[in-house]
Amino acid sequence: MADEKVQIIDDDEIITLFDEDDNPMDFYEVAVVEYEGELYALLQPAEEIEGIAEDEVVIFRIDSDREGEEDEDFFYPVEDESVQDAVFEEYLRATAGSECDGDCEGCGAPCDDKEENKD
């Protein structure tokens, strides 16, 4: 299923962010999701980071600074769990597509009508 609100990133680009102590942390950009007019990045650790599981994604709101000569993106952690859940659900809906077998409990993506999708 193609979804224009979700861009899946396949190029293993590494994004380096800095923690509150200015220590670098490297992440792979998994996807960019548009939700309620804002852009969000789903990032996965490229190396071991304390407190983040290897297969976990972290969601950041992207804010672009277009005033300077260079386009620069700023990443802000999303602390609101309802926004995190909604952004992740958008990602799941976009990636479920052809993998969905109609068994909504199996793929984790919400289906519009579970009975309609059953075999």
How is this structure best described in words?
This protein has 119 residues and is an alpha+beta fold. Helix content is 20%, strand content 35%. It contains 3 helices and 6 strands; from the N terminus they run ββββββααα. Strands 1, 2, 3, 4, 5 and 6 form a 6-stranded antiparallel sheet that branches. A hairpin with a 5-residue loop joins strand 2 and strand 3. The chain is globular and about 35 Å long.
Could you give a short description of this structure?
The protein has helices spanning 81-96, 104-107, 114-117; strands at residues 6-8, 14-18, 24-35, 38-45, 58-65, 72-77. It has 119 residues and is an alpha+beta fold.
Q: Which labels suit this protein?
A:
3 helices; alpha+beta; 6-stranded antiparallel sheet; globular; 119 residues
Write the layout of secondary structure elements.
Blueprint: E1 6-8, E2 14-18, E3 24-35, E4 38-45, E5 58-65, E6 72-77, H1 81-96, H2 104-107, H3 114-117
Antiparallel strand pairs: 1-3, 2-3, 3-4, 4-5, 5-6
According to DSSP, the number of beta strands is: 6
Helical residues, percent: 10-25%
Distance between the termini: 19 Å
Q: Determine Rg (CA atoms, Å).
A: 16 Å
The arrangement of helices and strands along the chain is: EEEEEEHHH
Estimated structural class: alpha+beta
* Overall pLDDT confidence: 80
The 3D shape can be described as globular
| Contiguous helical run count | 3
Main β-sheet description: 6 strands, antiparallel
Unreliable segments (pLDDT under 50, ≥5 consecutive)?
A: 112-119
Residue share in β-strands? 35-45%
